[in-house]
Structure formats: structure tokens, C-alpha cells
Amino acid sequence: MSNIKPFVGGNWKCFNDPSKVNQLVADLKGLEFPSEVDVLIAPSFLHLLNVKHELSSKSLKVSAQDVNQFSEGAYTGSISAPGLKANNIEWTLIGHSERRTCFGENDAVQAQKTVKALEQGLEIVFCIGETKDERVNGETTAVCTRQLSVIAEQIKKSPQNFVIAYEPVWSIGTGLVPTTEQIRDTHLDIRQWLVQTIGVEGNNVRILYGGSVKASNAQSLYSIPHVNGFLVGGASLVAKDYLDIVKATLISKNDAKL
User: Fold this and answer.
1) What is the largest distance, in Å, between two alpha-carbon atoms of the chain?
2) What's the N-to-C CA distance of the chain in angstroms?
3) From CA 179, how far away is CA 140, in angstroms rounded?
4) How many domains does the chain have?
5) What is the signed CA dihedral for 191, 42, 65, 140, rounded to 10 degrees?
6) What is the CA radius of gyration of the chain?
7) Which end of the chain, N or C, is more open, meaning fewer C-beta atoms within 10 Å of its C-beta?
8) What is the CATH number for 188?
9) Would residue 210 count as lying in a domain?
């Protein structure tokens, strides 16, 4: 049976209508999230500090959506790891596919960001995943392990600072969900890479699934071996749906789950 605490993260992406954000925060404040699950939300930078303040009484982790690969200084438009730390933001996403595809950030950039984040003691949700063509061409495992390999040394040094989020690029926001077998096999491959890379501690690094996760499919997805939680997009913008997804991780573990 698993002793891994489930983890659910909600990525609010670049949705910034103040009235909608304020309503979402108010809705979240009115809900009780189970303490048995680590729950994270990642607002846009425009709302990050306000959301952190407003939800300070809740047991919710508040995360940046990204961090730069530099530090403080002349880097207009970016957010540094020291800046996040100074403002009591303890988490950041790194490597989201939209950073890779929309902004042209390669594996080396994700590695540099990871180093800077760890220098400040930040905790990281590190995102990996393949495109549709890479899936069709049988390259999923190669792509995911390549994306992980550039941070292998950092994971070895600080495995407790990492959560890995597998998000097939072709499933994000499309309504398309991989088959149970595809998710199971990919998560198993990631788990095996972690164990081979950092040893037995690799069994304790949480691996999330992300890509068209909804309240209606969360429980069946969580039942898949090696799925330790979710990184959620659109469904995290509706407080009750997000809570339902969080609660889906409280299902009984089976013997196959790590």
C-alpha cells in the first residue's frame, strides 16, 4: 500500500479578470479541503500575492507559474527565485509545455531555472510531456526521460523539493485523454527512471497526471498505478469542481499503486 500523500495542483494560467479571480478566491475560502491531500494553486503573477494573502488561513499552497533562469537584476518582465522567496512564495511550476512551445524555452533553460529555484529552497512542480507526433512515433518515454535528465543532478540532491507532472501536450485543454494503459505505462517508465537515477528515494517522488482532468474522470484516473495526483488546468477555475478532483484522490489505494 502507498504512503505517498496525494498532491493536486491547479494552474490558473493567464486568466486575469479581477472579478472572476475575486469570486474564485471567495469560493475557495468557503470550502474545506481535506488535510490528507497537498493542494496547490498557481495564479498568474498579477494575482499571486493577493491570492496568497487572501487564502492565508486555508491549508492551500500558493505557487508561481514560472521563475526565470537568472536572478534579480536587469531582466525586464521576469520573476526571479529570490523575488518569490522574499515574498513568501515557496512553490513554482517549471517546464510547463506552454513555456516550452509558446515561448521557445528548451530543456537547458528549464535546467537553469531549476538550479535558481533550488538555490532559494523553492519547491518545484516540474512538467514533462510529449506532443501528439511524438506519441504516435513511439517517442513518449524518450522525450520524458530527456526532459528529466537535464535536472537529474538536482533531483539527486533534493528529491524532497520535487513533484513531477506528466502532461501529454496533446491532451492539455483539448478534452483528449490518453488511455489507461498509456498513462500507466508512462508513469511506470517515469517511476523506473527516478529509481534508477536517485535510488530508492525515487519511490517517494510524487508523479502527477495532467491533461483534461475533470471532476468526472478524476477518480478513474487516480486509480491508475503510479498516479499520485493531478496538475489541473481549466477545472481548477471552478472551486467546487476543483474540490471534487481533490477528493477523488482519497479513494482506497490498491496494491499496485506506489
Assistant:
1) 52
2) 7
3) 14
4) 1
5) 30
6) 17
7) N
8) 3.20.20.70
9) yes
Long-range residue pairs from 23-26, CB within 8 A, at least 24 positions apart, any chain: 24/237, 24/238, 24/239, 25/50, 25/51, 25/54, 25/55
pLDDT exceeds cutoff 90 at 257: no
Domain hosting 66: range is: 7-248
User: Is residue 32 annotated as a catalytic residue, yes or no?
Assistant: no
What's the pTM value of the predicted model, to 2 decimals? 0.95
Give the model's pLDDT for residue 2: 55
Residue ranges in 56-178 assigned as alpha helix (H): 81-86, 97-102, 107-119, 132-136, 140-149, 152-157
How far is the C-alpha of 67 from the C-alpha of 105, rounded, in Å?
12
Whether the CB-CB separation of 250 and 37 falls below 8 Å is answered with: yes
Active site residue 167: yes
Residues belonging to the chain: 258
User: Is residue 85 within 8 Å of 53, Cβ to Cβ?
Assistant: no
DSSP-derived secondary structure letter, 5: P
User: HSE of 62 in the Cβ direction (CA atoms, 13 Å)?
Assistant: 22
98, 105, 134, 167: the active-site residue: 167
How far, in Å, CA of 198 to CA of 221, rounded? 27
Q: According to the model, what pLDDT value does residue 163 have?
A: 98
Do residues 167 and 127 lie in contact, with contact meaning Cβ atoms separated by under 8 Å?
A: yes
pLDDT class of 251 with cuts at 50, 70, 90: confident
In a domain, 119, yes or no: yes
Q: Which of 96, 105, 130, 187 is catalytic?
A: 96
Q: Which amino acid is at 214?
A: K
User: Among all chains, which residue has been given the C-alpha cell 479541503?
Assistant: 33
- How many Cβ atoms sit within 10 Å of the Cβ of residue 27? 14
